Amino acid sequence: MIQLFIILALAFSKPLNPKKVLYAINCGAPSNYKSPSGIQYEKDIQTDPETVVADYSLNSEVSSQQIKYTREPQIYLTERHAYKTFSYQIPLQKEGTYTLILKFAEMYFDTKGKRVFHVKFGEQRVIDKLDIVAKVGKYASNDEYIEFEYVAGQVFQNNTLCVGAVQDGKLLVNLEKTKFDNPYIHGIVLYAGGISETDYEEYQYMKDNWEKILSEEKIKEELERQKKSEAKVKRKEKVKFRNDHLNELENEFEVDDQSQSTTAPQTKRAGLRTLITSPLGTAGLYISFFFGMSIFTKIISKISKAKIKVSEKDIPETKPKQEKQTKEKSDSGEKKNKTKESKEKSKDKQK
C-alpha cells in the first residue's frame, strides 16, 4: 500500500525541466557543476569583498553527513555568507512569469533562532525571518520558491510592486542581516514559468515522505544488488563449466573392471564446439589428420604399383606381334623369290 501511494504521488508530481532553467548559480563554488537532474550551475563570480565563502566539502565531519530532502547534495556543500546585508544580481530576459528558487541548508547551527535573516527584491521583503533550523533542522535542504512577474521593466510579487528590484535589467536579490547571526545562501535558480510548472510539489512531497522514500530506495538498491550478485554467480558457474568440461569428458570414459571394455561418452547438446576446442579434441584432430594421410599414402602407392604391373603385361604382348610381322614379311619375300625362280625355269624349258 505504501509503495502504491509513493508511485501515485510521484506520477502526479512534475520534475524541474532543465531546459526552462534560465540561470543557475552554485553559490560559493569555484567551478561549474551539472546536477544529476541536468541543471548546469555556473561558478560563483561574486566580487563583494565583504562576503565570505565556506566550502564544507573540505570538512570531513560535515561532508560525510547526509543532506536530507535533496538529490543534489553537492549544491549545499558550498555557501556564501556575510557579516552584513549582501546581494546577488540575476539577469532577466523578456517579460513574463518567473520563479526564483533560493537554496539553503544549515551546516553550522543545530538550534533554531541562532540564524535568522530576510530576503528582499529590492526594497520589498519577499521572505520574512527565515530560520532554516526551525523549518527543516540541521543538514537538510530548504528551497524557497518565489513566483514573480516581470512587466515593463518592473517586478511584481503577489501583485505588489517591488521598488528598486530591477537594476540594468537584473533582479536585485538582497539577503538582509538581522541581529541573529549572518545571512547566507547555497544556490540560486531562475526558472521560466510559475510555481505550478516547477518541481515544487515533488519537493514538498519529498520533505513530507523522506523516510518512506529512503526506505523504498534502499529496497530497490538491495534488489539491484541481488540481481547483480546472481548474474555474477551465473557467470562464474559458466566459466567453471567451461574449465571443467575436459574433466567431465575424461570421466565419461569409464572402464568396466569385469568386461575390461571401454564405454564411449554420451554426446551432449552444444558439446561439439567445446570438444573440438578442448586439448583432447585438438589432439584427436591431429591424430585423425595423420591417420588419414597414412591411408591416403597407402592408396597412392597401391595405385602406382598396379600401373607398373599393367605396363609389364603390355611389353611381352608387343614383342611376339613384332616378330610375327617380321616373319610374315620374310615369308612373303621367300614366296616372291620362289615364284621368280619357277618362272625362270619354265622359260628355260621352253627354250
Automatic annotation (TrEMBL):
PANTHER family, A to Z? MALECTIN (PTHR13460:SF0), PTHR13460
**Where does the Malectin domain start and stop, copy by copy?**
21-188
Q: Record keywords: Signal included?
A: yes
Q: How does it sit in the membrane?
A: Single-pass type I membrane protein
Q: What is this protein called?
A: Malectin domain-containing protein
> Source organism's superkingdom?
Eukaryota
User: Transmembrane stretches, by residue range?
Assistant: 283-301
Q: Which GO terms describe its molecular function?
A: carbohydrate binding
Q: Any idea which UniProt keywords this protein has?
A: Carbohydrate metabolism, Endoplasmic reticulum, Glycoprotein, Membrane, Signal, Transmembrane, Transmembrane helix
Q: Where in the cell is it found?
A: Endoplasmic reticulum membrane
Signal sequence, renumbered to the chain: 1-18
Q: Per the annotation, which location comes first and is thus the protein's main one? A: endoplasmic reticulum
Q: Which family does it belong to?
A: Belongs to the malectin family.
* InterPro entries linked: Malectin_dom, MLEC
Q: Which Pfam families match?
A: Malectin (PF11721)
Entry GO terms, CC: endoplasmic reticulum membrane
Q: Where is this region: Disordered?
A: 310-351
